[in-house]
Amino acid sequence: MRKTYICLLAVLTLAISSCNDWLELQPENNQVSDEYWTNKEEVEAVLGAGYVRLRETMEQQLVWGEMRGNGLTTGSGAILADIFRINQWDILPGNDFVKWDKFYQVINYANMVIKYAPEVVERDPSFNQNVMQSYLSEAYFLRGLAYFYLVRNFRDVPLITDPYMDDQTAFEVAKSPSNEIFQQIKMDLEGAVEYAKEVAPTVWETKGRATKWAIYATLADVYLWTEEYDKAIAACDAVINSGQLGLLEGMVNNNNNWYRIFSEGNTNEGIFELQFDFDKSQTNNLMSWFGTNQRYNVTEHTVTLFADSDEDIRGEGSSYLEGDFSVWKYLGAEAETGIPRTYSDQNWIIYRIADIYLMKAEAMVMKGAGSYDQAAQLINQVRERAQISAPVSAASTELEMLELVMEERGREFVGEGKNWYDILRVASRNDYEYKDYLITQVLLTAPASSAPIIRSKLLDVNSHYLPIHLEELAANRLLEQNPYYDNLN
């Protein structure tokens, strides 16, 4: 853990005036000491560094959220061995994609802001209490979101709420149980709501920094995991009724308007998006991962989800291309044209309004049979936007209703880093009441030759979480390896 917490920040004195300034200023190789915190620009620079680190976790978000599920698989091109092994459930503690250091760097930057920002109010007359509180709100959001990724993937993780400021000091911390991590996440996010902005001065800030709606969206997701369904519904309703967001119209002038969510980014549907802009020298590797290198493709199972309706504007030519199974939503300039994007500067979308509708539908299902019709109505709102004329009807059992929600999520969020979490969340409720569902879903895309081995692994619920990387174990003597991986190396 000591290695993980080494600060990379430096004194950043330029004013924060644009997306380019704020997200591209890179720290020099200095520590941010106690003496650093003198004005609001320095506070915002540290906060910005947290967003930069979050942006650097993009491929881990993709791999962790997709490669153990059934929505994406490895492609036909330049595939990294460690990604292939995760996809095949051959995960070892030395796998580079199980490193958690960047998420803990996000947490550390957030911890710095939380600790030191209140002191800056006394030093900088232009830094008033309300602005300071809005920065704290963003810091709590970043910390809560980073821990949310960690707890879903590792279950028990070290809980750190103080900044690590001195790289000469040993920083060894044991794991905390997942229920404590979830409690901290909820405290952070619930506390962040009061002072969060509803809108920011610019569109990119409204979509790319933590607003009240980004916090509520994350809370709704967290409440689904902690089985607090009334709270999940209330959080979803806060977003839906905000007046700030809405589902895009599916087709406009015979053009696929849904595709604008990805081709343009920062649409009325977006809630929280990691920002990229070629004109500001901000690019990502999505076109390389999904196109040039063919690292990731959709599965045949994903294609079958769209087979029931030729009307669905999210299918062939939009989410994926027929034949090579590439994820067109990240590659194309427009839907159903075959015209590629010029630059790889698509935003990476963490939450958007369709997610809110389907999270609320899931929570309604878990409220009982009396709410199934309402859940179906929410699913149908998403389907209608996708131009599907045939509505779904409420099913008769909880699992059948959950499957309706999950299938719709499978269509709506192809390659958006959500598939594995959806499967695990449904399966693990009520002490793994639906473990068979998880096994069935994962095996839908497993090679026949390895299916029996993968099935035997999935029977042990400890295998549903990632191992702690060997470097982290070596650096932090208080860490214990996750149970399934004790004898693997």
Automatic annotation (TrEMBL):
RagB/SusD domain ranges (all copies): 325-485
Highest taxon listed in the record's lineage: Bacteria
InterPro entries: SusD-like_N, SusD_RagB_dom, TPR-like_helical_dom_sf
Keywords annotated in UniProt: Cell outer membrane, Membrane, Signal
SUPFAM superfamilies in UniProt: TPR-like
Endpoints of the signal sequence: 1-23
Primary location class: membrane
Domain SusD-like N-terminal stretches: 21-224
Subcellular location: Cell outer membrane
Family indicated by similarity: Belongs to the SusD family.
UniProt-recorded name of the protein: Membrane protein
Organism: Echinicola rosea
